[in-house]
Write a structure and sequence with these properties.
- The protein is of the alpha+beta class and about 375 residues long.
- It has a single domain, classed as Creatine Kinase, Chain A, domain 2 (2-Layer Sandwich).
- Strands 1, 2, 3, 4, 5, 8 and 9 form a 7-stranded antiparallel sheet that branches.
- The C terminus is likely disordered.
């Protein structure tokens, strides 16, 4: 069983207006310590909670819940609410960047693209033996990334309007250079040379600033998958963690068997990411291996079938099946936001704040 860790980004919104509020440093100063870590993010309206290194899914769930509750309590003390949404629902002015030389550098490089980028994701780290293996694993993960995005879609509203997309966060992210599904790399050295060249050409602020949806982590001995919108519920993040770990383990088994990853068509990769962002689970997706359109729901079934032996091996199968069943019944985060919008966009913010800190009910593997 591979270790797993999760990072979740959140927005801080004013309790009265529902718009975002640039008081992240004050919230972090108030927050009680957790088993993981709490961090600032690029903009002063955002905060992040990260778990530690976990082996069991119930520990992932416990630490995710702990991080959310700590940040939410600190936010309330500042007259704010913690909101798990991929984008800001209500109109808000562009917030200032978080203080620090690196954040200033990023703002200088990307200018207006980053100034209003109040987007929040869920990043999953899975432990691997070394960077060479990490690069090879990322190659194998590429066909599944759009489906992980579709499952996570939780950003239909942006600055007071319905975008028509399930994940507007992903559309916003495509404005950065080099975003999307990671190119095929034959080695860690080739990966490093490409990143170095992008930095030299001015497209990346530094080597840690790649925008690919999966990568060898620049900081940890892990594969980092950051395709997902932040989940409205803890359950959404747990599902991403379990499926991502199982897909990494499937990739490792393919490598052990001497099977290389398929080389994917770059334009179809872009089309697959766009379709997942546009429709979530409620429309057409793109099968990147067979290069043809297919219902997003069928891609989920195929992903689950691929992950299933490793979910069973990890003791996660029953929980993931229950989480997928619940997602099928309740809809994605985007669907839940649109359902709440019958009461207006302020009702969407209220719903998001409530579910962000709701205690998970599902505990099929002993989670509390």
């Amino acid at each position: 069983m591979k270790t797993v860790g999760v990072e979740e980004e959140f927005l801080l919104v004013d309790s009265v207006s529902g718009g975002t509020a640039a008081r992240a440093s004050r919230v972090l100063d108030r927050a009680r310590p957790t088993s993981g870590a709490l961090h600032s993010e690029l903009l002063a309206t955002q905060v992040e909670a990260a778990t530690g290194v976990c082996a069991e899914l119930n520990e992932v769930r416990r630490q995710l819940t702990e991080g959310r509750l700590s940040l939410a309590a600190a936010a309330r003390a500042e007259g704010l609410r913690l909101v798990a949404s991929g984008t800001a629902v209500l109109p808000s002015p562009d917030p200032p960047p978080t203080e620090g030389a690196r954040f200033t550098r990023i703002t200088d490089v990307y200018a207006a693209v980053v100034r209003g980028y109040q987007c929040c994701g869920c990043h999953v780290h899975v432990g691997v033996p070394d960077r060479e293996t990490a690069v090879a694993v990322v190659n194998h993960l590429s066909p599944w990334l759009p489906t992980l995005l579709a499952l996570s879609a939780n950003s239909p509203y942006h600055q007071g309007r319905d975008t028509g997309y399930a994940s507007w966060r992903m559309v916003e992210q495509t404005r950065f250079p080099g975003s999307g599904i990671t190119p095929y790399f034959g080695s860690a050295a080739e990966y490093d040379r490409r990143v170095e060249r992008l930095v030299e050409c001015g497209a990346l602020a530094d080597e840690r600033m790649t925008f690919w949806l999966a990568r060898p982590s620049p900081s940890y001995p892990t594969v980092e998958v950051r395709v997902a919108d932040v989940g409205g519920r803890v359950d959404d993040a747990v599902l991403q963690a379990a499926l991502t770990r199982a897909l990494v383990e499937h990739a490792l088994s393919e490598l052990d068997a001497g099977r290389e990853a398929p080389r994917l068509n770059e334009q179809l990769c872009a089309a697959a990411v766009w379709s997942a962002a546009r429709y979530g689970l409620d429309g057409q997706g793109v099968d990147l291996r067979k290069e043809h359109p297919v219902a997003a729901a069928d891609l989920v079934k195929e992903l689950f079938a691929t992950a299933r032996p490793f979910l069973e091996q990890n003791g996660d199968l029953a929980e993931v099946q229950a989480l997928l069943d619940r997602l099928g019944a309740d809809g994605t985060g985007a669907s839940r936001q649109r359902e709440a919008a019958s009461g207006g966009l302020r009702a969407v913010v209220d719903m998001l704040a409530e579910q962000t800190t709701s205690i998970p009910l599902l505990s099929t593997n002993g989670a509390s």
